[in-house]
């Protein structure tokens, strides 16, 4: 007997056989989220594969909050879905939501170090993106007490100099760590 997920994927295939245009409304912006947003959020890898093969444009669609399927999969720690989405469109590592947060920022905030490693491996230069408040990924590591993520980023980006970047308040990571006194320097 198949799993519920297999059943959903099979249902999608049957629906697409009956009506090739069933996904068309989503590509024209008639809905807040695409089916790929929902499958990425829930971690439905097989369902995601079926949707991506039918409508690859969904991988770069942003919902009404400017959130991509990659960001949703990242936030929920669905590593296999993240890997699959990166194969479809690796440039989505640069997509930022309404707060200027990229999938890498969200991976740090949520402590998804395994996902962060995959994102950095795919697009290493995406670590330089800043939020709308001018925070770098290392600022977010300190702010959200994500020491494992900080260690990984410092180790893999020794030459970039972004560790000394200042946020919009003029604070470096060291300033934040000392001000909070929660992290050993």
UniProtKB/TrEMBL annotation:
Domain of life: Eukaryota
ANK repeats: 99-121
SMART domains, sorted: ANK
Keywords on record: ANK repeat
PROSITE patterns membership: ANK_REP_REGION (PS50297), ANK_REPEAT (PS50088)
Name of the molecule in the record: Ankyrin repeat-containing protein At2g01680-like
Organism: Populus euphratica (Euphrates poplar)
Biological classification of the source: Eukaryota, Viridiplantae, Streptophyta, Embryophyta, Tracheophyta
């Amino acid at each position: 007997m198949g799993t519920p997920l297999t059943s959903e994927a099979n249902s999608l295939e049957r629906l697409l056989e009956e009506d090739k245009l069933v996904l068309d409304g989503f590509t024209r912006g008639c809905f807040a989220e695409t089916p790929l947003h929902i499958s990425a959020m829930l971690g439905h890898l097989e369902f995601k594969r079926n949707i991506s093969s039918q409508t690859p444009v969904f991988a770069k669609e942003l919902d009404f909050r400017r959130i991509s399927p990659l960001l949703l999969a990242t936030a929920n720690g669905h590593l296999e879905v993240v890997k699959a989405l990166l194969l479809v469109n690796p440039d989505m590592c640069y997509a930022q939501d309404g707060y200027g947060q990229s999938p890498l920022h969200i991976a740090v905030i949520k402590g998804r170090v395994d996902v962060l490693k995959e994102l950095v491996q795919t697009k290493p230069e995406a670590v330089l993106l800043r939020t709308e408040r001018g925070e770098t990924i290392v600022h977010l590591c300190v702010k959200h007490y994500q020491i494992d993520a900080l260690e990984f980023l410092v180790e893999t980006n020794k030459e970039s100099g972004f560790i000394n970047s200042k946020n919009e308040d003029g604070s470096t990571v060291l300033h934040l760590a000392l001000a909070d006194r929660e992290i050993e320097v």
